[in-house]
User: Fold Phosphoserine aminotransferase from Epilithonimonas hungarica.
Amino acid sequence: MKKHNFSAGPSILPQEVFQKASEAILDFNGIGLSLLEISHRSKDFVAVMDEARAIVKRLMNLGDDYEVLYLQGGASLQFLMVPYNLLSVDGKAAYTNTGTWASGAIKEAKMIGNVDVVASSKESNYNYIPKDFTVGSEYDYFHCTSNNTIFGTQMKSFPKVDTLLVCDMSSDIFSRQLDFSQFDLIYAGAQKNMGPAGATLVVVKKSILGKTRRQIPTYLDYAVHIDKESMSNTPPVFAVYASYLTLKHLEENGGIAAAEAKNNAKAKLLYDEIDNNPNFQGVAAVEDRSFMNVTFTLTDESKQEAFDTAWKAAGISGLNGHRSVGGYRASIYNAMPIESVQVLVDVMKSI
Amino acid sequence: MKKHNFSAGPSILPQEVFQKASEAILDFNGIGLSLLEISHRSKDFVAVMDEARAIVKRLMNLGDDYEVLYLQGGASLQFLMVPYNLLSVDGKAAYTNTGTWASGAIKEAKMIGNVDVVASSKESNYNYIPKDFTVGSEYDYFHCTSNNTIFGTQMKSFPKVDTLLVCDMSSDIFSRQLDFSQFDLIYAGAQKNMGPAGATLVVVKKSILGKTRRQIPTYLDYAVHIDKESMSNTPPVFAVYASYLTLKHLEENGGIAAAEAKNNAKAKLLYDEIDNNPNFQGVAAVEDRSFMNVTFTLTDESKQEAFDTAWKAAGISGLNGHRSVGGYRASIYNAMPIESVQVLVDVMKSI
Assistant:
């Protein structure tokens, strides 16, 4: 039976990526060796790394003032690297607290320096995106999370701030057209729209670095990774290759514009059902609804068993909500076909 | 033509690992989904992580006082995590400087606290292992590198020190029988004997943690990863799975004892040729020769073109020495068959 994978991450990727990644493990580029056994400094892999970095800039329409890095440690290590690299010894940073991962970022930054939380939706279990705040030039940077995977909220626009704009885009990167040049630093764990777990993307405007008067440990220093072109130490070869395949697939299939159109259609299909079906209700504030992670609950808990049985029988997996929200979460990342969303909607109609 | 892959790392792994890893990318455990698209908290992957951790303890014959972690960032990030977790605010650490990576470890530790380099072979381009030193209880820990990939030296025994014994085993872990209980902390980038790039193994005696009076950033804190069973954030799923396959293969084929016997035979075959063939000479001091990375040079540089042509024609790859040593380096990790070493020896005899 066909599977419909609504997992929040690691998550669905294009089938073509699985096929090509699987082949490369047996024989990479026809060289008679596995991708897993070649030097990261071999010309075949250096070409992959170079192109993986170049595609990001093309997709984001960014110029030479930005650098692209593939690192390890996930967004969690970026929570630490961002303040190490951008928060000056006597400065302060502004953060919004829009969920579990934003809280994690705030916690790490506070270990490094001074942090003000300028807005938070914690008091309502993060079911909306706070918008009523300003950030002045007294801050070294402003940090936000574009999409909150657990709670199903998404920033539809980004505030104009009088400082650097830093964004954790782990769960909605490459899902919609944005003016990426408004950001000074973007980071993302790969394991949603851009690859399997094990690689972390950082896109950084080079001119913002080197200003904190801090001694930065080598692995945590963006400047080191820029200088070594993401080869300061052995990179996560397979994860970078699979990310390269994923981004190449995106580029060859209409880029972010085409992905956004598909994502809008999928989100509309599912949210319309949530709004029109009396058995369901959405969790997030309507204007802040995520187009990647759709959180919803049953209005009548007595229907839970019937619903759970029905979606499992339809081949759907990964639909259980996160424990801090409950209910259901349908993650409909770039690679999710609208046909799978229709299967879910049909199940919702059936109970 | 059959390839003979002498790459220093990422490096050769068992063919069975490539086969199974390739299959799992198309369909993992017969669940109808790719290994790359499932949640790291799914029961199928949690079972992999649990078993990957358990195999390490079985292979090393370690008890419940040790914890096994799979992290990211390579040995390079361990250079930072070790002092963050073990070097107390007013304490000092002892390091030996036996090569490029040992130097990297020393550099990071010095950013965190006080470090004494108690022995070094830098003055002779790291061609031997210094042995004439003691380490007293005034140190929080002693750090050494068991095998120096670039220079081809290996510690044949470990000093008795009056403090914690910490070892970077990246390039010879699981290659020989040791009393692993003599170590308090072992770490290794996976990309030699235990898997592809992208995962980092840490084996740590739990009782040594929590004594530095330092605030440790979350991702850098071993205690956090122990508490979350290596799932503090999304682990590098594929790299952990491939490491699990590699260690399972080792365990099912006689464990470390059988690997050691094979490695000894391979090393003897190659070093005997280096010593008996007047065209070649070894780089490392004889008593410190690595059984993983065999470094050698031509005695007559005019034969270089003939030798290079001959080994390439024989299907050999990855034989060029590191730029800081020159000459040649044959990396003969666990997965390297003795037949491939024989091919190299035959080429050496032929010129």
Observations:
- The two ends of chain B are 21 Å apart (CA to CA).
- Chain B has a mean pLDDT of 97.
- The first strand of chain B starts at residue 4 and ends at 5.
